[in-house]
Amino acid sequence: MDLSSPLWLAHDTQLIVCCLLAIIAIIVLISACKLTPFLSILIGTFIAGIGAGLPPEIVAKAFSKGAGSILGEAGIIISLGAMLGALMAESGAADQIASTLLRHARGKALPWVMALVAMVIGLPLFFEVGLVLMVPIIFVIARQSGQPLLRVAIPALAGMTTLHALMPPHPGPLIAVSALHADLGLTMLLGLSLAIPAVILAGPLYGIWLSKRMHVVEPAELGELFSAKVATRRKPTFAVSLLIILLPVLLMLGSTLAKVAMAPDSVLAVTLKFLGEPLIALGLAVIAAVICLGWSIGMARDQVGGVLRKSLAPIAVLLLTIGAGGGLKETLLQAGISDTIGKVATGAHLSYLLLAWLIAVALRQATGSATVATTTTAGILAPMMAGLAATQSSLVALAIGAGSVFFCHVNDAGFWMVREYFGLELKQTLWVWSVLQTIVSVVGLLGTLLLWHLLV
């Protein structure tokens, strides 16, 4: 991109510089000054917004809007997931699932089984939903198996995030498929062929390598939440325990089927889509857990209520941090970061796949949102992609999805979820989450380039 071009304004350069300064400030405030992530991101947001020319009151309103938006979605999901996880731990359901998995997968096989389980759970679920369901299982399995926490956790994280990036009907790939008029079935098939090697490299292999070099202990507060037990007349069976944790998966899978295979206005389709909303699916799972993992096994009503209440305290810091990340994202969007990166893309002369991946990477780094990166990139490229063959359109859509998860950092809600759930330091979170996602992103790009060479 020629920065002397009339398309490129001084504001564009200023905005990119301010975005970089804000990210550096956040990292320094957290790592060197030891401020809380929420306060650090808030300060970084004002550095970026005011530096980019937004009035302070607009920055404050943008921050509030972004924080409220993400907490209205992810916050409720995380809260319901914490309730469900606490009930599974208190009742012994998590132990039942962990013990059964360990009977069939011990030692070297365990990371591979965790990756497979995470892929199954992550197929219909948003990453945030899958993570809150998997965290108590990860803690219990690591505790019972005696294996390092990262050796169990990283394969699970890789399985869920890879499916979220590369497999419709997750929002990012589905948006790209729609914008580029790609074939949904073909994109799913090609996406699965890319997801398998990405999960293998970013999951079991990377998890085994990193766990030998980085020692992470179970965080005390969440570890206690997911290990406490109350005395009951009996323990839930494995079948009931598995059904409870898979209930949101089944409901959201039903919603997916309704969207792709049923008449949109039919009663069955409308019902399945309603039940498959993340809020409804997780809410029903919590109610089912109260009945099946609480009352029916002899837990008193006040005990069940106590479990639900105490599950919310450990996630308060996490919710504030995620909200702050949403505020930073909204401020950068209002400052015009998407338009600035779009100008860079317009002046670039690269192959379709590499261009799509690079634009998505740049937008994700700037905004912290895979959905924003995917939507904006697909919108920028759609006019250029008219007339592409079905396979080409599908591969471009997958390249966008791969780029949207490259090196997710401090403006990413998932970054802070992983940090708080696993009690990591900032540097450790970069190794665990940012590098993991980068592996998925790069494998996705290389896979699309290889398939383009073989199939086009």
UniProtKB/TrEMBL annotation:
What PANTHER family does this protein map onto?
GNT FAMILY GLUCONATE TRANSPORTER (PTHR30354), HIGH-AFFINITY GLUCONATE TRANSPORTER (PTHR30354:SF22)
Where found?
Cell membrane
Membrane topology listed for this record: Multi-pass membrane protein
Annotated Gene Ontology cellular components are:
plasma membrane
What protein is this chain from? Gluconate transporter
Task: Say where the protein is mainly found.
Answer: membrane
Q: Does the keyword Cell membrane apply?
A: yes
UniProtKB keywords: Cell membrane, Membrane, Transmembrane, Transmembrane helix, Transport
Q: Which family does it belong to?
A: Belongs to the GntP permease family.
